[in-house]
Specification:
The protein has helices at residues 2-31, 46-56, 72-82, 96-101, 126-140, 162-175, 186-191, 205-215, 227-230, 233-237, 247-259, 283-289, 292-306, 320-331, and strands at residues 36-41, 63-68, 87-91, 107-110, 119-124, 154-158, 180-183, 196-199, 219-223, 239-245, 267-271, 278-281. By secondary structure, the chain is α/β, with parallel strands linked by helices. A 6-stranded parallel β-sheet has the order 2-1-3-4-5-11, with helices on both faces. A 6-stranded mixed β-sheet has the order 7-6-8-9-10-12, sandwiched between helices.
């Protein structure tokens, strides 16, 4: 009888050990389960190419699929319905209906406002972008040993974006030395000998740059990511800087926050200088042609914004529109 009991006890122990091993193996497999990420972008440009390069760097951690171009909207619908992806990034696509119809799928959507619990919408602080460009231009137009800088201290802006322009004019006003701004009239800019023309519209960088190259002796400040790879060489030579949103860097930051369960959905966030996602591009031109005083001034402005010493209000704030009109009367000609 004792032998039988010993045998049964041994069998039980073996079964328990096997069960524990299976549980541990199952748990280990779950811990090692690779999360699937999808990136959809309706436009193939410098930003989408840079984003795909960033996702290549994390393929050892995530399973990533990228869909870029005209067909990506239909592919996004199919991917969402498949339920295969843990997180979907979207840029340059109207996915309102897709997000609405798939409440269990998590999305991160760039520069589009959607009001659903399963989406994080990311915007960029355009007033800060304008303020940074205005600070740069105001300082550079007073530089003494920089090519193409004339004694009149005149600046130009081309394009339609009130948030950009509000920040720009506020920075010019805050600089404190007499500087005037010509708006949209390139003929007048030529007559006034402007030093720098800011092209606010990404689609017009090339044409405005060509005008700066051919019609007047001035620099262009561009808008957009990776212009050094987009503009023709001659136009690049008169583009002293560009203001850009670091969308690829933002995606990697968001991915890191999500991986640590720190990302909250069902809201819209606005990133700016404080987070490091607004910056100057055309680094080679900027480093070579911009004087040190201007570089120092721009850096000091960025630091003051980060610590709250300089506050760049939104054009949507109370009394901002009235302030905008006052600035246009004060600074523009």
């Amino acid at each position: 009888m004792k032998q039988v009991l010993k045998y049964l006890l041994c069998v039980c122990c073996v079964l328990v050990c096997i069960g524990c091993s299976k549980d541990k193996a199952s748990l280990h497999k779950k811990e090692l389960q690779v999360k699937k990420i999808a990136y959809f972008d309706g436009m193939e440009d410098a930003v989408s190419l840079a984003c795909m390069e960033e996702f290549e760097e994390v393929r050892d951690v995530y399973e990533v699929e990228c869909f870029v171009g005209e067909t990506s909207l239909e592919e996004c619908k199919e991917a969402t319905q498949s339920g295969l992806y843990d997180l979907i990034f979207v840029r340059n696509l109207d996915v309102d209906e897709i997000v609405k119809l798939n409440p269990s799928q998590l999305f991160v959507v760039f520069e589009q406002k959607l009001d659903y619990d399963n989406v994080l919408c990311i915007q960029y602080n355009q007033e800060q972008m304008g303020y940074l460009v205005g600070s740069f231009a105001s300082s550079l137009t007073h530089a003494k040993r920089v090519d193409r800088i004339n004694p009149k201290r005149m600046l130009g802006v081309i394009g339609e974006n009130d948030a950009y322009l509000f920040g720009y004019l506020k920075a010019v006003s805050d600089y404190g030395m007499h500087t005037s701004v010509v708006l949209d009239d390139f003929k007048q800019m030529v007559e006034q000998d402007v030093d720098l023309v800011w092209c606010m519209n990404e689609e017009e960088n090339a044409s405005v740059g060509e005008s700066c190259l051919l019609d007047t002796n001035c620099w262009m400040i561009g808008t957009g990511y990776g212009l050094e790879e987009v503009l023709q060489e001659e136009v690049s030579r008169v583009t002293i800087a560009s203001i850009e949103k670091d969308i690829p860097g933002t995606m990697m930051y968001v991915l890191k926050e999500w991986s640590h369960d720190r990302l909250r959905f069902g809201r819209s966030v606005t990133y700016g200088i404080e987070e490091g996602f607004i910056r100057f591009g055309m680094k080679e031109q900027y480093d070579h042609f911009v004087d040190q005083d201007t570089k120092d001034y721009v850096q000091s402005v960025m630091e003051e914004i980060k610590v709250g010493k300089v506050k760049v209000v939104s054009l949507k704030d109370v009394n901002a529109l009235q302030q905008f009109e006052v600035l246009k009367e004060k600074v523009t000609v």
